[in-house]
Amino acid sequence: MLPAFVLSFAFADLWHQYLPWLAAGIVVVLGLLIYGAHDLFRLSLTRIWAISSVCFSEAIRKRTLWITPLAIIGVIVVTQLSHPDDPQEAIRQATKFCLFASGLLVSVVAIILACTNLPKEIDNRVIFTVVTKPTTRLEIVLGKCLGFARISAAIIIIMGIFTYAYLQSRSWTEMASVHRQLASVPPDSPTRPTLVYYADHGFLTTRRLDAPENLQVYGRVPDGNVRWMQGAQSEYFLVPFTLSEEQKDELQQVAETSGASAYLMTTLRIQQHMPNASEQREIKQLGLGNAAVELKAEELGPILPTTQPATQPANALPPAVVSIRLLNQNYRSLNGTLDESAGMRVVLQQPDKPGDSWYGRLTIPAEWLQHMAQVPMFYVQVHAISPATDYGVEAEPEMIFIPTGKQSGIKIGPAMSAQDPGKPAEPELLSSRGARGMILMGKADGKGPLALYRFRNAKVSKPSNGTVPLQLQINIEKNGEVDVEKTGESGYAKVGVEVINKKTGQSSGLIEVTPELSQTSFLNVPFKSVEGGDFDVVVRSQTQDQWLGLKDDAVSVVVADESFVVNLFKSLLVLWMLSILVVVIGIFCSTFLSWPIAIICTLVILLGHWGVDQLGSALDPGSGRSIATEFRIYDPVSSRTISQTFDTLSHVLRVVSNFLPDLSKFPVSDYIERGLAVPLSSLLQSLGVLACYGLPLLVLSYVIMRNKEVAP
Amino acid sequence: MTQSAQEEAVRIEHLTKIYKDFWGRDKVRALDDLNLSIRRGEVFGLLGPNGSGKSTTIKLMLGLIFPTAGSASILGHAAGSTEVNEKIGFLPEESYLYRFLNGEETLYFYGRLFKIPRRDLKRRVPMLLDTVGLNAKDRKRKLREYSKGMARRIGLAQALINDPELILLDEPTTGLDPIGTREMKDLIISLKQQGKTVLLCSHLLADVQDVCDRITILFGGRMQTLGQVRDLLQVRDITQIQTRGMSTAQIEEVQSFLSKMGVSDTVITHPTTTLEDLFMRIVRERTGNGQAKPPVGSPN
Q1: Nearest to residue B166, comparing CAs of A47, A137, A140, A132?
Q2: C-alpha dist (Å) from residue B220 to A37, B12, B27, B232, B239
Q3: Which pick of A447, A530, B74, B90 has the fewest CB atoms within 10 Å?
Q4: Do the Cβ atoms of B92 and A136 come within 8 Å?
Q5: Which helix (H) or strand (E) holds A536?
Q6: pLDDT tens digits, one per residue of B196-220
Q7: Which domains does chain A have, with CATH numbers?
C-alpha cells in the first residue's frame, strides 16, 4: 500500500510540475502544426526581419531610448545617497540598483510598446498595407516580437555598458580605501584576512561558491545515531507527516466519535546535569521550579512502558519538558490549533530502565485532528524547554497513536524520506528564527549549541597556496553583555569555526573570527580539511549571551573565481529573456483587447503567480475555517459555507497561478549582487519558462490574429 | 483552370457582409448578395454613394474582413490568401503608411515583404518614385511631412512595388490636384495598356467615366447596374450631330429643315469642354510660354 501511495504522490507532483508544459505543447501542436501548418511552411525570415526593423525604427525615431539616460541618472543619484559600511556591500548595492533600473526600464518599455503597437496600427489602418502584402499573420506576430526584443536588447546593452563602467569606477574608489585600511590595521587584526582577500581578488570578481547541503543546530557534535539538543537554547526538531487517505479517514473518524482520542507520542533520550546559578534562574522564569513533580502514568497502550506513577523529588533536576506545535507545509502554525505561538507543553516521563528513552504523550483535540486530516502534510515541532537538560533525538521520535482497544492500536509514523523512500524522514534539528536567520545562542566557554553546515560533493580543487577560502555571512542577532574591563575581551562577538573532513577526519582546528553586522568575511582553511568535498563546518558563538543569526547559506566554500563581465552578461541575458516574455504577453493581450486593458491584463499575467505566492499561508487548506472564526461566525451552516467558499476560491487561485509564469525563475540580480556566478542551470530555467509560456502565447496570438478582422 | 476562369481576374459570388453588434445580433447589412466578374486587362469601376458597400467589397476582396456568406476569388485563388496578395497591389482610400519612414524606406520595406532582392529594389524604387512624381528631395522626407497629394503618390508607388497583375485603387484621385488627377488617370490607362487589371473604387464620376471600361453602381449594399460605360451613358432617344464652322444663317436653315421633317424639341448650341480639359489646356499653354511647371506633389 505504501509504495502505491508514494508512487501516486510522486505522479501527482510530476503532473503538477509538468502541467504547464503539457498545456503549452498542446497549444503549439494544435495551433501551429495543425491549424497554421500552411503559414508555418511559408514562414519567411526576410519578412519577419523587415517587420521587426520597422518596429525597431519606430521606437528609435520616437526617441524611446532617450529614457535610458534618465534611468542612469536615477541610479547614480540613489547609489550616491546610500552609504554602506562594507566596501563589498557598496559594490553589491550599486550592482543591484543598476540591474533593478535596467529591469524596470526594459519592462516598462516592453509593456508599453507591445501592448500599444497592434491596436494602434489597426486603429490608424496602417496594418491594411501590411496584411494585403504576402505576409502571414504568423510573420506579423513574430516580426513584432522580434522588433520589440531588439529594442529591449538595445536598452539592455546601453544599460549593461553603463553598469560595468559605473561599477568599475566604484570598485577603484573602494579598492583605494581598502589599501589605506590595510596600511593602518595591525597584522593580527581579525579584519585583516578579509581586507587581504579583497586586495588580492578585487571587488568585481565573481565567485563560484558551493553551498552547504543543509544546516542543522545541535547541542553537541553528532556522534552515532542519537543527535542532541540543549534545553532552553531555542532548539527544536521537526518531523514531517504525510498522511494517506486511509489515515486521514481514521483521524476524521476519531475526531467525529465522541469519547474517542488520538495521541501524539514523543520519545527522547534525556541527559541532565545539576543546574548552575544561571540555569536555576531560567528554571524559575520558565515556571518549571524544583518542586516535586507528580509523574502520572496512563493507559498508553502496549507500545509504551508500563511505568507506575512516581514522584520526582524536590530540589533535584528540573523536569524534562518539551513544547509541541503542529506546523503546516509552510512552517506556520496549523490554522485553528490551540496555543499557536507557545505550543503545548508535555512533561516527559522516565523510562523503566536507565538509559532507555523517555516518553511523553499529548492528547490531540478533535479540532486538531480535523485540521491534520485536511492538509496535504504537516510537521510536528518539538522544542527543548528545560535548562540543564540535553535531549537526544532518535531516528523516529514522533508518532500518532490511535487506541482501538486492541493490543496494537493504530500507529502513524513520519513521512518517508525524499532521498530514500524506504526509510522514514530524519528529524531536522534546528533553532528558532530571528530577524537575521536561525538563532545560535552563545556561551563563554563555547559549550553552547553549534550550527553544523554539511557539505557533500563540494567541487573543491587543490589550491596553490594550500588553503581554501570560506565565505562567511554571519549576522549578530543580539549583542552579549561582556564586561570588557573585567574580562579583558574586546567586546566584539567571537565566533569559533571548525572544519572537519568527513572522509579523513582531518580538522582545521578552531579558528576564531569576528563577524560584523551585514558584512561578508573570508576565512582561509587548510585544503586537507575540505579535500574530497565531504566536510562539515561547525560554527559556535564563543561569547556569553551573544546570539548569532545564521542563514542556510551563511557559510559557503569558494571553489573558483569567474569573470565579472561574463557574469554581468549572463544576468543581462536573463533580463532579456524576461523582457521577451513581457513582449509576448503584451502582444498576446493586444490581439484581443484595447491597449489600456491590454496593459492591465499583461501586468496581471506577469504578477499573478508572484501575488499568489505573497499570499502564502493565507491560502492554505483550512484557512476558510480561520476566517469564519475570526469573523465570529458560530452558526455551523454559515461557518461551513464561508469556510468552503474561501477554500474553493483559494484552490482556484492556486490552480490559476500554476498556469501563470513564475518571475522568480528569472534571477536577474539574485546571484550577481551576492558576487556569485549565475549558474547555467539558472539560465536554462529562465529559458524553460520563456519557452513554456512564450511559445504557446505566440501561437495563440497568431490564431487570434488570423481570425481577426483588422478593418475597424 | 477553365477558359472563363483564365479570363476572369475577379469572381464574386453571392458575397454578403452583415456587421454584428457585441451580442452577435445583425446590425448593418453592408453588402447583400453581390455577384460580379471582372475580366483580365480591363479597368473596372466600382461606383456608389457613401455607405453603398464599395469599401466593404474591397475589404472583403483583400481579406481585411471576412464574408458572412458567399465567396470571392481573385486570380484563381481565395480572396485574402497570400497567393493572391503576391499578385495584387492595393492603394487604400487614404495613405495608411508608417509616417516615421521616408519615401524610399517605405518602398524598401514593402519590397522586402515581397522578398524582392535588394539589388532589384535598388533599381525599382527610384523608377517607381519617378513614375509617381516624387523628386529626390521629397523621397528623403519623412511621410509625416508629406502633403496629401504626395502621400497618395507614395501610396500608389507601394501598390505597384511588386508589379502586380491586379491593382485595387480606392479613391485614387482624392487629394490630388488636377494635374495629379490627370497623371493618375494616365497611369491607369498605361497600366491597362500593359495588360494589368484595375479595379477602381470612386465616387468621382468623371474620373471613372474617363478611364473605366465597365462599371457597376452599388446602392444600399446591392448592385444596381453593370455594363460598359459607353453603353450605360448612351441616351438612345436623342441624336447629336456635331460639326465645325456653321454660320447663324446655316443654323436657322437646319432648324427650319428639321421642323419641316416634324422633329420637335430641337436644340442647337455650342458644345462645352470639361473644366479639367480647360484647366489642363491653360496650364499647358502657360508652361509652353516659358512659365515654370509647378512642383509635382507640392502641398495643396
Answers
A1: A132
A2: 39, 17, 14, 20, 34
A3: A447
A4: no
A5: strand A535-541
A6: 999 999 877 778 888 899 988 888 8
A7: 18-187+564-618+662-706 (no CATH), 221-431 (no CATH), 438-552 (2.60.120)
Contacts of B90 in chain A (CB under 8 A): 128-129, 132
* pLDDT for residue A289: 62
Residues 6+ apart with CB under 8 A from B109: A50, A53, A54, B98, B101
Residue B36: closest CA among B88, B85, B71: B71
Minimum CA–CA partner of B108 in chain A: A50
Cross-chain Cβ contact A709/B64 below 8 Å: yes
Distance CA A701, CA A258 (A): 59
Of the residues B60, B75, B82, B114, the best mutation for testing chain A's interface (the one with the most A CB atoms within 10 Å of its CB) is B82
Q: Look at the domain B3-233 and name its fold.
A: Rossmann fold (3.40.50)
Are the beta carbons of A141 and B99 closer than 8 angstroms?
no
Q: What is the 3-state secondary structure (H, E, C) of B230-242?
A: HHHHCCCCCCCCC
Render pLDDT for B72-121 as a digit per residue (tens, 0 to 9).
999 999 998 999 999 999 999 887 899 999 999 999 999 999 999 999 99
Would the CB atoms of B92 and A61 count as touching at under 8 Å?
no
Instruction: Please check whether residue B45 is in contact with residue B108, taking contact to mean a CB–CB distance below 8 angstroms.
Output: no
Three cell numbers, residue A461: 580543487
What is the C-alpha radius of gyration for chain A, rounded to an integer number of angstroms? 31
pLDDT, averaged in runs of 10, over chain A (712 residues): 47 66 90 89 94 94 88 89 79 90 94 94 92 95 96 95 92 89 81 81 83 91 85 90 88 81 88 84 76 45 43 66 85 62 80 84 82 84 90 86 74 84 87 87 83 91 86 82 54 82 90 75 89 92 86 88 89 96 97 95 93 77 71 76 83 85 89 84 93 94 93 76
Residue partners of A516: CB distance under 8 A and separation at least 6: A85, A86, A476
Task: Return the percent helix, strand and coil in chain B, to nearest 5.
Answer: 40, 25, 40
Q: Which residues of chain A have a CB within 8 Å of the CB of B112? A: 46-47, 49-50
CB-based contact A125 B114, cutoff 8 Å? no
pTM of the entire structure? 0.74
Identify the bridge partners of residue A383 per DSSP, sorted by sequence position: A236, A323
Interface contact B141, partner A, CB < 8 A: no
| Cell numbers given for A244 | 494517506
User: A128 — contact with chain B (CB < 8 Å)?
Assistant: yes
Q: Is A710 helix (H, G, I), strand (E, B) or coil?
A: coil
Chain B CB contacts of A58 under 8 Å are 98, 100
DSSP A422: T
In three-state secondary structure terms, B268 is: coil
pLDDT band (50, 70, 90) for residue B283: low
Is A126 within 8 Å of B96 when comparing Cβ atoms? yes
Task: Say how far residue A438 (Cα) sits from the centre of its chain.
Answer: 13
